[in-house]
Amino acid sequence: MLFRDSLTAFLIILSASAALAEEQTSQPAWSEKAIRGHIDQSNLTGTLSLQQLNALNEAGEKRFRAKFTTLDGAGRPMATQAIIPTKRKRPPQQNFQRLSGADSNACSSCHNDPVVGGAGDFVTNVFVSEGFTNAQFDTSDPQFSNERNTNHLMGAGLVELLAREMSADLHRQRQQLLKAARSTGKRQSVTLESKGIEFGTLSADPDGIVDLSGIDGIDTDLVIRPFSQKGVIGSLRQFTVNALNHHHGIQADERFGTRWTGEPDFDEDGISDEMSAGDVSALVAWQATRPPPVQQVPQNDAWRAAAQQGEVLFADTGCATCHRPTLPLNSLSFDDPGQFDAAGTLRSGEIAGGATYDLALMDWAKTLPKDENGAVLVPLFGDLKRHTIADQQIADLGNELLGQRFVARNVFMTSELWGIASTAPYGHRGDHSTLDEIIRVHGGDARQSRDAYVALDQNQRSALIAFLKTLVIEQ
Fold it and tell me: Is pTM, for the whole model, over 0.90?
């Protein structure tokens, strides 16, 4: 019996290693290559066991922490920062450039506070140059780029799963609307809603023409894109492929290789096959399994009492209207690639198989509460919806000059507040140092809640801050 159990354990470990198939190269132990082999995507199929998932996460964390060198392909002499593979007109004078990139050595260079995978201080700000696909600019003037602070990635897998389920809900509502319009021969309308969040209205005529003018806070394709401060990135896979090229000059084969460009070395740096599809999958798995932030119970009696009062005030002032304390999630099965991945990343149906990461296997998943229907309650304090966040009187958060992916300049995704006590500074540029400051500069759709907060007395405002300071990333 003991022998059989030992053999079974050995086969499980062997299976986990085989699933990764990370190449062992002839590089010496002191090699200056950060990544010495690649993971074979074709071996990542089906629902991974906990042992397999742990092995993949270990490989993903290695790549997240890796300080890429020119031997790995760092730098992009003839490729721009654009998410669509675009050639430069001429190579840059410097390999690294803080404004148009490449701008960092490792993912963990920016995502590091208070843990790896966390947020970043003002010093880690990046510059989003939407539209300037082949320009090398050397100014932080806002007419050339939007400056953004680094968001944390904790609980990111839960966020993407929520977005997937909500997108699927909205797509079903559109299909039912079209069917009703055809069957009745009359124009039909529906209020788009998922998990208690409304996204405006959609109307359809019997001939199949759809009126999109009433949609609110989401793209017209009804896909929720939960990542980036503008809510324009749909998946961790898309985010990872974008960031590798922009920040490090590391090109993922699935977008910059022969699959899309017909070239094995698109950026012409002499290094081919810089990041395999399996390598990207490892990075996605590691990010998707990051434990979510928590709401701590203060040991200090005065803080605990203030936080309890502040939680009530958070709801009473209307903050919880957008910063929803929880959203229900029906399934913890994370498919990679997923059904809403964008062109330029691997997508389900484009490859044989694909892997599923069961987040229920994670220890942290067992601590999440469930509702009466058995759905996991994700405590993100957000709504995965875009809102106008500035107006004529309070315009601080509407200071960007460039639109991004057709989203208006003063419109941003609701920031998830879980972990906010661990991720100062605040605002999309990271230029507000206190929670009181960032609440006071809320305008637009949040103006009424902001005014309600300002109208509180000093002790009440302090209590609300005391509550927000319990939303932490565990270290």
Answer: yes
